[in-house]
Structures are given as structure tokens and as C-alpha cells.
Amino acid sequence: MADDVCEALALDRLLFVPAAQPPHKPPTELAPAMHRYRMTALAVQEHPRFEVSDVEVKRSGTSYTVDTLAALQERGRLHLIIGSETFLDLLSWKDPRRVASLARLVVIPRNGMAFDPEMPAALKVLRELGLPGFQRDVTEAVDGPVPLLLHAASLPISGVSSRTMPESEWWIMRVKGSRRYQE
Question: Terminus of the chain with fewer CB atoms < 10 Å: N or C?
């Protein structure tokens, strides 16, 4: 999926940001944060467009996307890549309006899951975040914080990624860990 997103959006780079302490996951369900960071680094090391950041692993406390986006502002315009089911859950996040103001949302429906951007739940999220409807054409120029609905092959991981475009735009996806990892 990350390659599909890179191609569709003509991105130069993608930064994966493993969450140290995700707020919606009990720590007992996760591999240790440094293990997840190392696994992510190993997974992306051979890909010339991918890199991994330790911004959340270095920060103490709960890993909130809003804090990560604020910390990454110096890198340029940010975009947050999330699955459609995560988009529908966005109102449960810490400061979701600020998340939407710090980064353009790029919403990718997962394969095999129906997502109607006009359904009441999606419209409620858009309304509460103060966002207009979705942009559906990647080639269409838009002004302001218009979320993009992008269809990609699938999301093989749940995760945080950030990509930089030539205009130094960063793309972010959340990477969650699994207890099944064995060192």
C-alpha cells in the first residue's frame, strides 16, 4: 500500500513513525516500543523512499498523533494517511480538530470494506472537524484543508507514515505493534 500511495501522489519519501504508547491499545497487547521501531527500520531499510522516525519512541508518555504532528511541523506541510475505519473513529482522538488543522487527511478505504464518504457517520466527522467533503481526484488542485479520499491496493499494516514530497510535504501513517513479535 505504501508504494501505491507513493505512486498515486508522486511522493519522494515516506516517514514511518512507530507509536511508543498508543492511547487506544493496552501496553500488554504490544511489543516493546523499541522493538517495534527496530522492526519498522528493518522493514523499510531497503526501500529508497522509506525511512523511520523515533520521534514518538523518544518522547515520554502517551503517543498522541496531535503531538507528533506538532513536533513535525518544521518539516513542512503535513499529510496524515489513515484508513477509512480510523477516519470514522477520529473524533475519539485527542484534539481531532487540531489534528485536522496540522495535517491534510488522506483517507484510504481498506480492501473489502465498504466506505461511503456520504454516509452519516463520515459526514458527522467532517462536520465536527470543520472540513468540507472529500477530494476524490488526486490530480485536482485544492485550497485549504480538504481531505483526500484515495483508493490504494490495501493496508498491510496499521500504521503511521510520513512522506516528503519535493515541496517538503510529509505524509504520516500510524504503525501499531503486535505482541506476537519475538526477538
Answer: C
